[in-house]
Amino acid sequence: MMASLLETVDVRYAYAGAAAASSVCPGQRAEALTGASLAVRSGTRLALLGGNGSGKSTLLLQLNGTLRPTEGEVHFAGVTLDYSRRGLTKLRQHVALVFQDPDDQLFAGTLAQDVSFGPLNLGLDETEAARRVAEALDAVGLAEFGDLPLHMLSHGQRKRAAIAGGLALRPLVLVLDEPTAGLDPEGEDTLLAHLDGLHAQGMTVVFSTHDIQLAQSWADEVAIMQAGRIIASGDAAAILEDEDLLRSARLRPARTSVRHRLPAGIAR
After folding, report:
1. What's the pTM?
2. Comparing C-alpha atoms, which of 195, 215, 214 is closest to residue 268?
3. Which spans in 14-154 are helix H?
């Protein structure tokens, strides 16, 4: 078995005030994560599945150090995360996180300015930063849109713009929270086609989703979350055939195994 590139080990996490809320509302968990262990192998496409409130987004936020575990550890390349400013800056060059809502991530005047923020923040000169911006925009199909103000981009384009901001750091792992949420079928196919290209170049992709058919058609491996922990993980085809497991995690089994469509001329 290939060693994990990125992993969480018995991670627990509690948001401020959650314990008090749980004493008032029995349905509210005191901890968002209750001992979650996730292993991400290099070069895989891993789908993180679970119902609302299962802890998916909270777990993804652990992977690049945005949140720090209350208990447990997160490892990258076999080394426990260093949560100092310097340590996190180094980690985020290798593990890029893209939020579900691109407007939580995009902030600059134009697309190119936004994508250049990461490289410039690393201390790269303007020539190298511009080179990385061009490469990142080309990778997500937005090469001609760099001078546009962000508000002129569609929702799907802003999703890809947020991914470009992460790609400009040239990460080894791309972590995406609900990447297809809010996209129409054409926008979803376009996004997945570009992610296919990135994966083909060796990038590891971790993404959360409720969409069983997306996981079935696009992921190599899946991990199922319930009540703040991973209850199953491994080969996507094997786990997604277990309908009892899926229903126990408040997920609806796929009726058919249908691969997502791609725009004409783009092959898997």
Report:
1. 0.87
2. 195
3. 18-24, 56-63, 85-94, 111-121, 126-139
